[in-house]
Specification:
By secondary structure, the protein is mainly alpha-helical. Helix content is 55%, strand content 8%. It is built from five helices and two strands, in the order ββααααα. Strands 1-2 form a two-stranded antiparallel sheet. Strand 1 and strand 2 form a beta hairpin. The relative contact order is 0.17.
Length: 127
């Protein structure tokens, strides 16, 4: 079982109260929401392919059409946002910004996939 996480807050009466953190969520941008939740090895490959700006993002977006999930409620919306991200990464790579964005997005895809796998394993362990 995962270690218990707590935080201390000041109550209405001024006393410090320890509260248990049940869950947390990270705010994702529109482009981050389009990142598919895939096998971490495949996510690492797509991250590596993002050395060519937008290539890994483009290929990762296509996994949404093959039944993979993303943070959007509709995989089709995630697909089109992913294609837009890949295109913008490629176009803005002329200014170097797109290259860094592409690398960062590849790392994000891998991180999101690893977190999803860890959550799945943790949920299995407590059932």
């Amino acid at each position: 079982m995962a270690p218990r996480q707590t935080m201390v807050i000041k109550g209405e009466d001024g006393e410090m109260i320890e509260c248990e953190v049940i869950s947390t969520t990270e705010k994702e941008s529109s482009f981050q929401k389009s990142a598919p939740i895939i096998n971490p090895t495949l996510a690492g490959l797509f991250g590596f392919l993002n050395l060519i700006p937008g290539l890994g993002t483009f290929l990762a977006a296509h996994t949404l059409l093959c039944g993979k999930k993303c943070s959007y409620s509709s995989p089709v919306k995630g697909y089109f946002v992913g294609l837009l991200a890949a295109f913008l990464q490629l176009i803005s790579s002329a200014l170097i910004i797109g290259w860094f964005w592409s690398l960062w997005h590849g790392v994000y895809i891998a991180r999101k996939s690893n977190e999803a796998r860890a959550t799945k394993q943790w949920n299995k362990s407590i059932s």
